[in-house]
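Request from the bench team (R.T.):
"We need a structural guess for the complex before ordering more zinc ion. Sequence and SMILES attached. Just send the tokens back."

Command: build protein-zinc ion structure.
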Amino acid sequence: MRVFFVRAKTLVALVLVAVITALACVGIVRYKQAVQASKNGYVIVIDPGHGGADGGVVSSQKKVKESEINLYVSKILANTLSRKGYTVKLTRSADIGLYEVGATNKKLSDMQKRKEIINASKPDLVISIHQNHFPSSSVHGAHVFYSDKQERSEQYAKIFQQDLNAELEQSKQYKKADYYVLQCSPYPSLLIECGFLSNPTDESNLLTASYREKLAKIIAKSVDKVFFGEA
Ligand SMILES: [Zn+2]
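Reply to R.T.: structure attached below.
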């Protein structure tokens, strides 16, 4: 009889553990679904800089165009954020310029189209992806730029720069800038120069898929951080 009671107690304990575990799992799933659903309410515009005839800066060794790297990083970032539940809009998803056919000032026409897309999307955040170039090849690293035209841009720039500094083991300072894409809308906007194509180490990194994926992952985590405080 005693053995029976011991077994019965063990059985009850096991059932309790199973029920608690199941309830915890349901809780975690519901929490994740709730976070996912709330992210659907956030709209992020990702703007791969340049494109088409405008290749941007060119890498020193391999002559790869900035526009190509921008598009690659932007697409991974878009996929990552979509999977997390954000609504994502890309200003371009192919190697094309956004200027009107026959436009006399192609650069202006291209930028006006980007402005149109940004304003029509009413985004919570605009992230423009670029690569840098400098006469001195020793300058390297990822830089975040913002405009003081929108209230939260500086606060967001600080977070993005801190995350890039920590993950890439660098110490860059985010900066105010007057780039058209940062000033063309009332929505928080950042321009990220992922690295210097004039620096041999940055260049060789930026030419690899793994480094581009790493950058997209860091930026996506910063997006979560600014909206949800998630690390
Ligand atoms: Zn650029």
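Two things stood out. The beta strands are 43-48, 87-90, 125-132, 143-146, 175-176, 189-196. Residues 1-39 form one domain.
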